Amino acid sequence: MICMDYNPKQMAIREKVFNTIISCFKRHGAENIDTPVFELKETLTGKYGEDSKLIYDLKDQGGELLSLRYDLTVPFARYLAMNKVTNIKRYHIAKVYRRDNPAMTRGRYREFYQCDFDIAGQYDPMIPDAECLKIVHEILSELELGDFRIKVNDRRILDGMFAVCGVPDDKFRTICSTVDKLDKMSWEDVRSEMVKEKGLSEEAADQIGQYVSLQGGMDLAERLLQDAKMSQSKQACAGLTDMKQLFSYLQLFQVTDKVVFDLSLARGLDYYTGVIYEAILTQTGPVPVAAAQNGAGEKAEEGVSVGSVAGGGRYDGLVGMFDPKGRKVPCVGVSIGIERVFSIMEQKAEASAEKVRTTETQVMVASAQKNLLEERLRLTAELWNAGIKAEVMYKKNPKLLSQLQHCEDSGIPLVAILGEQELKDGVVKLRTVHSREEVRFSYTHSISEIKRRTLDV
């Protein structure tokens, strides 16, 4: 199955996740945009490194050659250049398409949502970058997915490292793509690919191996600035200086407990030019099915890697590729791996006894006797007109028990019951489904009374 259908329970979970993410994006002052689901093929070509083979091309029908969008970042860069936008903080939530091998346990499909937040514009170094990492921290904390860590690195540090380790210039990108596989493959397998498939010397591969095993924080950046080899690269030194600045801002944002400077992080996309980052869900204890199939292989005491749930970085040159005069707009952003988040949230919902509500109905209008359809419809209309979420059964004479059972099954908290005696007395009986407590109040005040009580449930 290349794509998925989603039932009401799954969609309720998805909507809750989207609301959490959008709320965070708006809290940080982001505006919303949209772009077409397909782009000119030439717009997408050459932007994704070895992953370009995963782009879906549309059959030529006598016009332009088109492809389905692979991500939201390249269309965003094209949007900035085409509309001459030089300054924006935007979010974009939409579907993207990849000719990948679907893996449902890992939240990987050929059609899936991405949730992107990007800051475009000329600003002082590392301030927007730090905010992107703060946003990842906020979203993962609010969703309560479990423990996580955010790995950061810098493309300039990687390129400087490759240079001082003896990697030829024309092999930087392809070796970077191989290093990017370290979260899925052992170092021995990565080294073998570098040497046997990519033609790198064993000596250069071994030197890379010494660096990509390093992890730390600001202290590691300071140490590498004093490193005999790394200090020879101006590019690496610029990246390391910015990394120190980044960690100083992250300390102010109070997120350094989850952020680690990791030299093995590569992110294979061609358009990154500076800081790159990736959020990994971790958990201690047995490896879950999803993690086992993801090839996670870290020690239990360090936490088991469940997989990447967010990633991003700085891409200062991408907009210039689409501008006729090559004008650049510096950009930095993050993409939330929403499908994997959905998978985890659905598994948590299945494991817990808590019922997932698929509607937001606040009150059911029910009748206790026959021939009260008109009265039920009249009260239901008044509730709708007052902005109250209400339902009524589509039967002339439903049984009261059936109506109450529907509320139990659907999680509707209140039932407004109309009966012959209630109509004679000019009252409405309101029942709280959970406690089965009942109160009566006059029909004329029923709307305001029900509205007040919906706030308490």
Automatic annotation (TrEMBL):
<feature type="binding site">
    <location>
        <position position="98"/>
    </location>
    <ligand>
        <name>L-histidine</name>
    </ligand>
</feature>
<dbReference type="GO" id="GO:0032543">
    <property type="term" value="P:mitochondrial translation"/>
</dbReference>
<feature type="binding site">
    <location>
        <begin position="71"/>
        <end position="73"/>
    </location>
    <ligand>
        <name>L-histidine</name>
    </ligand>
</feature>
<dbReference type="InterPro" id="IPR006195">
    <property type="entry name" value="aa-tRNA-synth_II"/>
</dbReference>
<dbReference type="InterPro" id="IPR045864">
    <property type="entry name" value="aa-tRNA-synth_II/BPL/LPL"/>
</dbReference>
<dbReference type="InterPro" id="IPR015807">
    <property type="entry name" value="His-tRNA-ligase"/>
</dbReference>
<dbReference type="GO" id="GO:0005524">
    <property type="term" value="F:ATP binding"/>
</dbReference>
<feature type="domain" description="Aminoacyl-transfer RNA synthetases class-II family profile">
    <location>
        <begin position="5"/>
        <end position="457"/>
    </location>
</feature>
<dbReference type="Pfam" id="PF13393">
    <property type="entry name" value="tRNA-synt_His"/>
</dbReference>
<keyword id="KW-0436">Ligase</keyword>
<dbReference type="GO" id="GO:0004821">
    <property type="term" value="F:histidine-tRNA ligase activity"/>
</dbReference>
<dbReference type="InterPro" id="IPR041715">
    <property type="entry name" value="HisRS-like_core"/>
</dbReference>
<dbReference type="GO" id="GO:0006427">
    <property type="term" value="P:histidyl-tRNA aminoacylation"/>
</dbReference>
<dbReference type="GO" id="GO:0003723">
    <property type="term" value="F:RNA binding"/>
</dbReference>
<keyword id="KW-0648">Protein biosynthesis</keyword>
<protein>
    <recommendedName>
        <fullName>histidine--tRNA ligase</fullName>
        <ecNumber>6.1.1.21</ecNumber>
    </recommendedName>
</protein>
<dbReference type="InterPro" id="IPR004154">
    <property type="entry name" value="Anticodon-bd"/>
</dbReference>
<dbReference type="GO" id="GO:0005739">
    <property type="term" value="C:mitochondrion"/>
</dbReference>
<keyword id="KW-0067">ATP-binding</keyword>
<comment type="similarity">
    <text>Belongs to the class-II aminoacyl-tRNA synthetase family.</text>
</comment>
<keyword id="KW-0030">Aminoacyl-tRNA synthetase</keyword>
<feature type="binding site">
    <location>
        <begin position="271"/>
        <end position="272"/>
    </location>
    <ligand>
        <name>L-histidine</name>
    </ligand>
</feature>
<dbReference type="InterPro" id="IPR004516">
    <property type="entry name" value="HisRS/HisZ"/>
</dbReference>
<feature type="binding site">
    <location>
        <position position="114"/>
    </location>
    <ligand>
        <name>L-histidine</name>
    </ligand>
</feature>
<keyword id="KW-0547">Nucleotide-binding</keyword>
<dbReference type="InterPro" id="IPR033656">
    <property type="entry name" value="HisRS_anticodon"/>
</dbReference>
<feature type="binding site">
    <location>
        <position position="267"/>
    </location>
    <ligand>
        <name>L-histidine</name>
    </ligand>
</feature>
<dbReference type="GO" id="GO:0042802">
    <property type="term" value="F:identical protein binding"/>
</dbReference>
<dbReference type="Pfam" id="PF03129">
    <property type="entry name" value="HGTP_anticodon"/>
</dbReference>
<dbReference type="GO" id="GO:0005829">
    <property type="term" value="C:cytosol"/>
</dbReference>
<dbReference type="InterPro" id="IPR036621">
    <property type="entry name" value="Anticodon-bd_dom_sf"/>
</dbReference>
<feature type="binding site">
    <location>
        <position position="118"/>
    </location>
    <ligand>
        <name>L-histidine</name>
    </ligand>
</feature>
